[in-house]
Amino acid sequence: MSVGQYCNREVIVASQDTSILEVAQLMRRHHVGDVLIVEQQREQNIPIGIVTDRDLVVEILAEEVSPDAVTVRDVMSPVITIPEKADLWDTLQQMRYQGIRRMPVVNEKGGLEGILTVDDVLALLAEGLTDLVKLIKHEIEQEARLRSKP
After folding, report:
1. CATH architecture of the domain covering 3-117
2. Which of 7, 13, 56, 107 could make a disulfide contact with 114, Cβ separation 3.0–4.6 Å?
């Protein structure tokens, strides 16, 4: 199972010169908790940072910094990327080791292809567990039908 199979391909991006207000508005408009900061290189979006809703609260609001006084460049965190062909379970181990909840997924040239988040993985696991429960229920029902025949 590769990361590319399970990552979210709809990623909201901005440049490092984007205002904090614009980033917050992007998050609200698209109902997301992060915006990837990219740099255009060789006609590809190369991920260079990330701004999360938590960054806005902790770094701007809690510190009473005027959103007009800073840009994304001032608050973005660096990102660790993962190739889209990387193994999903190895990637989860790396995320746990690094203490990160979001990891941009890139192609062989470093261009942005998607993002893998803890939320995506939880949804995948929940779906898998639901399928297992359905399998067990079906098996029990099938066995009951077979045994109830005269």
Report:
1. Roll (3.10)
2. 7
